[in-house]
Structure formats: C-alpha cells, structure tokens
Design a protein that fits this description.
Length: 304
Amino acid sequence: MCAHYLTTTHLIDHKDELHRYNIDIAALSETRLADECELCERGAGYTFFWSGRSTEVRRESGVGFAIKTSIVSKLVDPPKGISDRLMTLKLPLQNGKKHISIASCYAPTMTNPDDVIAKFYEELNSTLLDIPKTEKLLILGDFNAIVCSDHHIWKGVLGKFGIGQCNSNGLLLLQTCAENKLLISSTIFSLPMRKRTSWMHPCSRHWHLIDYVITRQSDRQDIRVTKSCCGAECGTDHSLIITKLNIHIQPKRRPQKSKPLKRLNTASLADDKTEKSLADAIENCLKSTILTESNVDKSWECFK
C-alpha cells in the first residue's frame, strides 16, 4: 500500500498526480472546505472525504482523504471527522484479523493561541487512546512543527536523520509520540536533503521538515521508505510526502461458485434391463409407502 500527505485546496485538480504516483490513500490538509462530506467524480478513480468548519465561520483549516474508489468499499466505516483538524479511517488488512487506522492531521501553526494548539493535541491523544494497541497505526499530516535531530534523547521516537532545531510545536509532537510509543518515520531514512525536507520558509528560504508520517515503534518494519517528492505538482508550497508500506489491504472476496447439480443419465434407459430395474425399484418404493395422513400436503411431504 502507498500512502502520502498532500496540502491542497483544489481536490479534483490533483487526481492526475495521484494517478502518476500510484497513490492508494492520500491525506489532505488545509482543504478549507465546509462541513463533513464526500465527493466521487466519475472517471477520476478517487473518492474525496473531508472534514471542516461550518459555512457560518471563517474556514482556515480542514482535513480529508483522497482514496482510490476501488478501496472505498473495503473501509470498515466511512472516514470519521473528529474536527476540522483531524480525520480518521480504518481498513482491514489481508489476513482479515488485523486492521490499520489512518489519521489525517493539520496542526495549528505557532501563531495560533496556546489553547487552540492544546485542543488539537488533546483531540489527537484522545483519538490515539481509542485505537486498540493491536491495530496498526499511521498518522499523516502537516504538524507545523520542527523536531530536532537528537535521536539519543528521543530514543525510539526519532531516527538518525532528523533536521533542524526543535521548536515549541516540535516539542509537543515529540512528547505525544513518546507517550504513545510512536516513531516519526520521516527521520529514519538516509536520503539526500531534498528528499528529507517538505517546506521552504518564505523569508529565510531555508528548507524544513514539518510534514510527517508517524507509526507505532513496533511497526517500524512495515515502512519501506518515507520521502519527499519534489517533482509533484500539487498547487502548494509543501512537497508531496510519500510512504510505501509492507502491508496489503484485504482483497475483495470473490463470490463462491455454486456446486453444479448432478445430472441424471437418462440415456441409460435405452437399455431394457436398466429400464426394467428402475421400474421395479419405483414400484417397490410405492408399495412400501403408506399414506395415513388425511391432509394432502402432509401426505405429499411423506411421499417425497
């Protein structure tokens, strides 16, 4: 399965890029669409789900998913919008015994009030607690956070290839990952710098990593690679982040073929001996059948 993170406000416009990179599930951030809804365009190959604020208030956030239409029917339930910054879905895996929960996140920027940031992480922690520990987990999104490269301090949470100096949002993200035994997979692969960063600061022109793919520490072996794709045309100042996974979604169950009815060999009745044998067998059965029921329907049941 291939999943990725994408910041967009024009959902359908990017379906060609989703096809080009063969994306199964895309997490969408900053959609700025109202309410909780879905959209399936004929021939697009993808169904879009989103969760946002109501039409009566200013819409500055919004999250969602773009899912291959062939996969939508396999969802346990339709994607659930927790808020305008958090949405989740659940898929059965190939063995049929386990599931994977995927969350699409859009964290507040550092310019937001502290109570807005605190509310987001409270919702995220509450959502993580509701997901059984036996389920696989994947968190995709724009966290507007810079985590450090101190993998010795944040053992198990960070890999050796983190970028930059930790800011306040980054500290909140690291604490959340440590409390829930999560791994920021974007920091565990040795890749060129252009494939490890996702956003360029408009003033300093420095590249940073603020978009993350997070999983359970126990499921590290499921992540084949997490990287930034600089060539994707997504209509945003963020690079597309792709994650390839070593898991497979449960295939659609094939309808079971009904057993063919046993056909009688009527051609054998052309033989006189066979015909006489069958006639004698039927006559003996009729003689041994005693119909004592006065009701015709009950007599017929006994006769059969």
